[in-house]
Amino acid sequence: MKTENKPASITIQLHAGRLDLALARKITELAEENGFSLYLSNSQNIRIMNIPATAVAAIKEELRPFGVQFRKSGTFPVPRTCVGKPHCERARTDTMKLSQKITSAFAKRTQVKGKFKIAISGCGFCCSGAKTTDIGIIAVTNGFDIYVGGKGGHTPQAGRRIKKKISEKEVLETIETIVAFHDEKTVTKQRLAKLAARPDFPFSEI
Ligand code: SF4
Fold it and tell me: What is the predicted ipTM?
């Protein structure tokens, strides 16, 4: 098979796992017309697959009017969230709103070094895997707990709690500090698990 005909894919970042209906219709239309297949990723993105490499640019142009954000390296990670308030009776917060606040607070960041992820859970059940993600935010009574250094993969590891019952403002400040430390100590990319165990990591386990 020639390289230019090798199937490619396009990954669209979805915010808080929500898929806009007009975009859903457009993706369905493109998939039906062209024989593409769709994959919903663990990171709550949607991947359009089996696109001829030569058609990727044209397909992206068709999707751009829907305000989509294509996943690419160097962009700040969109948090993975559980469904949150008001859709889950256990939820202590609107996870989508908090995700939007985080996303807009860091939207202008470019050249963000990989590959840390962020997850938000509306309660301690952690349906979004907040304790097994680099930066995990869990809504609790009167605020948020923050965990760092969690990961899955070959050697799963639970994150360590570094903040208890803090405000949304403090959540943003804490993320800022963690990301600055990650940027300072990272050449190209790394998870937070090892960094969080360093003696000079700016937060201690509590
Ligand atoms: S983490 Fe809690 S609030 Fe979120 S979906 Fe699960 S049970 Fe509901």
Answer: 0.99
